[in-house]
Write a structure and sequence with these properties.
It is built from 7 helices and 5 strands; from the N terminus they run βααβαβαβαβαα. Helix 3 links the parallel strand 2 and strand 3 (50-52). The protein is globular, with a radius of gyration of 15 Å. Helix 1 packs across helix 3 and helix 4 (60-69) runs parallel beside helix 5. It has one domain: Rossmann fold (3-Layer(aba) Sandwich). The protein is an alpha/beta fold and 140 residues long. A 5-stranded parallel sheet has the order 3-2-1-4-5, sandwiched between helices. It is 48% helix and 14% strand.
């Protein structure tokens, strides 16, 4: 069962909840994780179980990043707000950095989330986990 991370800035939470509702049937077969407030809203509005971390500004973004770095998250849906600066922007950047580092697919809009889900529905996707052993050897 794939694990899907859900994150949304305040002004984008309604769009993410709506998106999860639209894809509820498919997502019901997945393990869902989310930052605290987002996870509580998704769970309340959809009835789907969600593993909730801390709120993003309190470290939830970093907790999601840890899940990615430790190979426990397969996909990240992050509806961020391009019109508002966030006090925890460094955490957001770190989350996106670690997702790219570990080759985790990231959708940042409804359109990209739809396309990602459609592609995954075909059932033949296997994420390639990068081998960072050379980097690890250099830094030890």
């Amino acid at each position: 069962m794939p694990t899907l991370g859900l994150v949304a800035h305040d002004h984008r939470k309604p769009a993410l909840v709506r998106w999860v509702k639209e894809h509820r049937e498919q997502l019901a077969a997945w393990s869902l994780c989310a930052t605290g407030t987002t996870g509580a809203l998704v769970e309340k509005e959809t009835g789907l179980p969600v593993k909730k971390f801390l709120s993003g500004p309190l470290g939830g973004d970093l907790q999601i990043g840890t899940e990615i770095a430790e190979q426990r998250m397969d996909i990240l849906i992050f509806f961020w707000d391009p019109l508002e600066s966030q006090p925890h922007d460094p955490d957001v950047k770190a989350l996106l950095r670690v997702a790219v580092l570990w080759n985790v697919p990231v959708a940042m809009s409804e359109a990209s989330a739809d396309l990602l889900l459609r592609g995954l529905a075909q059932g033949d996707y296997q994420r390639r986990v990068p081998d960072h052993s050379n980097y690890r050897a250099r830094t030890l």
